[in-house]
Please model this.
Amino acid sequence: MQDSKELQAKKYEILKTVYGYDAFREGQEELIDCLLSGQDVCGIMPTGAGKSICYQIPALLLPSVTLVISPLISLMKDQVRALNQMGIHAAYLNSSLTYAQYRKALAYAGEGRYKIIYVAPERLLTEDFLAFAVNASISLIAVDEAHCVSQWGQDFRPSYLKIPDFVQALPRRPVMAAFTATATREVKEDIVRMLRLSSPHMTVTGFDRKNLYFEVRHDRDKYKGISEYLRSHPNDSGIIYCATRKTVEEVCDRLLADGFAATRYHAGLSDAERRANQEAFTYDTAPVMVATNAFGMGIDKSNVRFVLHYNMPKNMESYYQEAGRAGRDGAKADCILFYSGQDVVTNQFFIEADRENGELDEATLELVRARDRERLKKMTFYCHTADCLRDYMLRYFGEYGSNYCGACSNCLHSFETVDITQIARAMLGCAVTSGMRYGVNVLLDTLRGSKNEKILRLGMDRNPYYGSQETQSVVFLRQVLNQLVLQEYLTVTDDRYPIVRVTQKGWEFYEPADGFSPVLTMKAAKKREPAAAAQGSADGRGRRRTASRSGQDQAPSSPFEALRRLRTQIAREQHIPPYLVFSDKTLEAMCVMLPQTKEEMLDVHGVGELKYQKYGEPFLALCKELAGEDDLS
Ligand code: ADP
Ligand code: ZN
Model:
């Protein structure tokens, strides 16, 4: 048997010849080395970080077969297809196969024909599968989406609890690898304990996805904002997430009526339609997918160039996961959230109405709800913060970014610093003098001098701060209030009807010991001149173009488009999704390098020996042609 050092040296060769990549990404190498030397691992890496390579490369180097346990049928299919494309023998065993197909695959597996087998967790302890597994020699078991073993997670799957029993039934325990994108402490501990990993090497890689551009928009007319975005990114593929099935249908219908190649996905559609629509999206025949959050788990499409949120999701975890489906190929991509206050109300409703988990008693349910309300609040703050969006997100996940990323709407749009001392005093004062009994709306209505029924009924029209901020817009007052909460001068309680309270820090500001309040400032978006507002959108778009990714506004005649067209043509001929031919990032690299020889082509990111044999020549020919055109001009 080869020793692990020799195997470890070979991993570079495989990375280059099979995958066509030059370097490992953060975390990959150490995980691979550990597995090759026989140590269990647990890899916590965000979506798109490249977890698959961490078990696929060891699978290719270890002597016998690797089992990959995965809960997601569509993901298995995709991965197996991608592996077969690269010349690796792989198969999947799940409920999408007929019994005959399943028997056949299992028989082939028994003959040792596959290097990698993807299997659904429910299959593990079935008689057929166990018979195969006990007789086969298994080198490695990789558990994908390992957080499904944890009751803490949102995706708990009881069948994951059977994994240790399965492992125990094997004559020899293979080395084990667990992967997930969920990083909270409870989930991490559960994975190690429940899967019985033995002193695993833990790798946690950063959550920062540098190629993603983040933006929050407060458009009055969201549909208009979205359709304008699509119009200015005509050749790109992406996802539009909506909160409800109804909204999915409405948005999709309007987009279709407006001539966009959109399709839709939600849990209310028939299996057949869902499958067909997903296929259309994957193959770029309908490059725009309008969907609820039912869409995406296991979507492995790498050339998703944008993820737009028509509604705000219920928490940052969901947002990060959904937005993270953009730009998995590492090329630039946009994540834009279209916010409106109604989204908060909708989510609150979902939280209160959630009776899904029938196994929980009322006390536990209330705890869960309290946690959900807290998470929703943090999500809402994301939409209002004037700080760097990336920084906010990283802080939420327990990392520290710099205060300025330069690639989010807050960092890029010009912000100005405004003095909010007076408004803050009025806000705190209003809360204090009304006995800290009311919520955000009552406070803001009072400050604005509203005459609505509730304000009059509560007698807030006699509050000393009534009407003191009548010249300010509600939106701005809300921003200031959010700012005061973010900076911990105010806190909003977790009650069913949240109440605004003044914190210790708030009191010290409101009634300073030395009689002088410090000056409070906040970064706020510069107010546009009314005249400039008309051309504001053009201006905004221009800025966004430089702000967001490069190469997105290619004229149809650009080299990138020519390469993309060739890719589409080949993909259609071979009935495979375009990104399986080459990723967007690979095409971009080709564009820059315009390789003229086979060797140069093999130097392009994402072009391995096998891919070259399959598709190299037509692309090389096209690159030569494109280089020729360059010379002429
Ligand atoms: P995850 O499972 O972590 O969400 P994947 O394994 O699907 O991510 O990888 C995401 C994308 O990154 C894939 O297109 C993959 O080929 C690519 N990738 C993975 N590792 C590398 C690498 N070392 N260099 C370049 N691209 C990589
Ligand atoms: Zn930023």
About this structure: The CA atoms of residues 33 and 154 lie 31 Å apart. The chain has a mean pLDDT of 86. The domain at 4-204 is CATH 3.40.50.300 (Rossmann fold).
